[in-house]
Amino acid sequence: MKIQAMSNYFRRRFALPILLILILLLDGSLQVMLLKNLGEVNYSMTSSLTIIALTILSIYCQRVNLLYLSAIVIGFIFDTYYSRVLGVNLFIMPLICFATRYFAQHFRINFYSVWFWTMIVYLTYGHLIYFIFSIFNLEKPQYGIFLFQHLLPSLLFNGLMAFILNYCLERFAEWINK
């Protein structure tokens, strides 16, 4: 009985943050792999597994406070290691969770609606990061170059990743919620 209580406590308190940190690490490793394997092509792709996971888990997970706290911590870690502007993802990632929870109340939850919403969130995130980095003069490409050589190839890759992760993260959220 005591082992089951400890297992339930772990599942409710620590499984979600640990999964998000592992996804963040996998996201960084996948990004390095994409950069090395694409070589001399005329386009680039960015892995956004963290954004995808936060969006999907915001729909399925019932532990809202833990999700928001995890999003803040993941946003800080993301800014520290992967971004050049501290505080952008620290603010955007909890905002993604909040907006997703709000809009999920207004549409029917099924596999395709969750996938479509994840793609909307990814496109919004990509544009928002581009415009914020443009304001701080950290990114100089023209909008058309950004759109066709970076965002659209990344959208295809992340659309496939969201398609794969949707089922897995739904089952994970069911396990946490029970």
Topology as a string of helices (H) and strands (E): HHHHHHH
Tell the overall outline: globular
**Sheet bearing the most strands, described?**
none
**SS-based class:** mainly alpha
Given the structure, what is the number of helices?
Answer: 7
Number of domains: 1
Report the end-to-end length measured between terminal Cα atoms. Answer: 17 Å
**Mean pLDDT over the residues:** 91
**Amount of helix:** over 70%
| Total beta strands | 0
Unreliable stretches: none
What percentage of the residues does DSSP assign to strands (E)?
under 5%
What's the gyration radius in Å?
17 Å
Explain how this protein is built.
- This protein is mostly helical.
- The chain has one domain (1-177).
- Helix content is 81%, strand content 0%.
- The chain is built from 7 helices and no strands.
- It has helices at 2-13, 15-38, 49-60, 64-82, 88-104, 111-135, 143-177.
- Helix 3 packs parallel to helix 5 (88-104), helix 3 (49-60) packs across helix 6 and helix 6 (111-135) packs across helix 7 (143-177).
- It is globular, with a radius of gyration of 17 Å.
- It starts with a helix and ends with a helix.
